[in-house]
Specification:
- This protein is an alpha+beta fold.
- The chain is 50% helix and 15% strand.
- The chain contains four helices and four strands, in the order αββββααα.
- A two-stranded antiparallel ribbon has the order 1-2. Strands 3-4 form a two-stranded antiparallel sheet.
- The chain starts with a helix and ends with a helix.
Length: 112
């Protein structure tokens, strides 16, 4: 099964880093946001205040292997996608990121 790049684009442009609500981050593997198989978490700290701002999954070797397998499978379909179409997806992702510029600034400066 491969990652459907259209779903990936939609996910990142519609709900890219919902900073106000995100506390427990997830890994994006095979078209889904998932937690680590370990069930363990790593605290993410604001470096200027040392406040815990979120938690990220403590990924395992099994998690990594699953992600690699999914990426290799997805590459087959992505490689068959015409370059102009791949560029359109990447531009759409970049537009989504630019559209959330103020949120990134607040995140990076520790303001919510």
């Amino acid at each position: 099964m491969y990652i459907c790049h259209r779903k990936l684009i939609e996910k990142y442009t519609i709900n890219f880093l919902d900073i106000k609500q995100m506390k427990n981050l997830k890994m994006y593997v095979n078209g889904k946001f998932v937690e680590s198989k370990s069930g363990k978490w790593i605290d993410v700290l604001n470096p200027s205040t040392e406040e815990v701002v979120s938690r990220q999954p403590d990924g395992t070797v099994e998690d990594v292997n699953e992600a690699i397998d999914a990426a290799e499978a997805a590459q087959v379909a992505w490689a068959k996608t015409p370059a102009i179409e791949r560029a359109q997806y990447l531009h759409k992702m970049a537009d989504g990121i630019r559209g959330r510029y103020d949120e990134f600034v607040r995140l990076l400066h520790g303001r919510r």
